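Protocol step 4 of 6: record predicted structures for both targets in the notebook before any analysis. Target 1:
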Amino acid sequence: MPNERLRDALLQRGLAVEEVARATRVDPKTVERWITQGRTPYARHRHAIAGMVQESENYLWPNAVTPGRKAEISGSELIDFYPHRHSVPNDIWTRLIEHSKKHIEILLYSGMFLTDDPSLVKRLKGKADSGVKIRILLGDPTSREVARRSEEEGIGKTTLAAKVRNALAFYRPLSEVSGVQIKCHSTTLYNSIYRFDDEMLVNTHVYGFMAGHAPLIHLRRLAGGDLFETYSESFESVWQTAKNPKW
């Protein structure tokens, strides 16, 4: 079976088979087999290719690492754990944004705590201007999922929808900025996700509690790990179903 993830990653980076062959010091026909026949490269070759295409080895070759080893690596991806999102120091959020060089991805319903920072839009624009790709997923304020979550938090059926509309108004200046994409989703949100290159904050959702009072885990992506990649793929799944907002 062809390795479509590897094929797509090479195409996205504009890398030819010959370039990969030179970098890994193998015959171009070997690279072709990695792509067209789904052959799994040796670990040293996987590491080199993952670095070239800026993807994790686990994403490119999901079955290359044994379950036991994958679980061990995934445990090492956990940097810290906070019992409540509001207990995360502000300087962590600032550092993650400022140090991002490739990706900033945000998945939530409203995230009004972020909009408390009036400089956020300006800082995100600056990151986009420097080449960082930014994707923001907000809830669809007209969706039943947002209304249900609002009731589950005990704040009334329409309160969260109003917060989402406020958040959309806050981020609207970014809608015309190159490198920034904003969409609305209507999925059941089990976790809010904040990705900054190879670090991620995952805010779990707990029934009956507002997100700020729910736990948060801080992850750092490791080659061969599975935890970071799981949440990253979840973000992608929601992104594919989301729609452009009705400004």
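Target 2:
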Amino acid sequence: MTQRTLNTEETARPAPAGSVAGGARHGTPRAHRTLRPHTLLVAAVAWLLAAVFLFPYAEMVITALRPVHELRDATYVPGEFEWANFVDVWHESNLGDNLRVTLLVAAGSTVLVLLVAVPAAYYTARMKFRGRKLFLLLVLITQMFQPTSLLVGLYREFYQLDMLNSVWTLILCNAAFNLAFAIWILTAYFASIPEALEEAAMIDGLGRGGALLRITLPLAMPGVVTAMIFTFIAAWNEFVMGLTLSTIPESQPLTVGINSFIGNYTVQWNYLFAGSVIAIVPVVVLFALIERKVVSGLTAGSVK
């Protein structure tokens, strides 16, 4: 009798808060949260803005696939897609050489900028030397100069050094014009990392360089990635210096090579847009892979 009473009391005891009800265990659907009109309006506006910004890229892809006889048709979608445009633009022009030059220039400029900017930014953030503010001011002033204002001097200098039509020339120029931004962003990022972490590492036996490589640099990796991606994209999209310092078609970057489809009397729109699609794909893929680190690097230090 006593055992039966205890079982009855346990069955009648209410379930604790937050526990799953018996009906829910057997597949009873949960109540869905209703969307507010404000949320729906914001989502609709966001999708509309995304469509507006993506429409030119969609038009570029569609035009790249248009046959020659449909280039002047006032239709958004062609009657047939000419996939051979991508093959023809690759074989009938120097686009392969231009892509190779652009990859070398963008990668070389990025590596050179990081090799110089990381130690410079670290020393500026950690050492309170005389003239530190003047150094940062000079770095900022160099960022204010436009490459086009220095083209005549740069052309004359590299002409005397016999370095025209060289990949190294474009690497040096792109690295020089992107170095200031990398130093500034990395200086702010290194300054936000507590110096006590490095002091603890040096007490354990590491030197200043070891503390930088093993402690500070991994923590500053979002800032390094941010400087890397911005330098890479700036070097990838550069046009004016490539047009001025490279006169041989095989040594020109991709942006200049695509411009060759624009003639004095005719424009090869299908090849022009096909080359543009090929040019943006590597940057889009690279940015999509490291987008989170770029955002975290740009917002570092905004919330304490």
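Step 5 preliminary note on target 2. The chain has a mean pLDDT of 80. The two ends are 64 Å apart (CA to CA).
Proceed to step 6 after PI sign-off.
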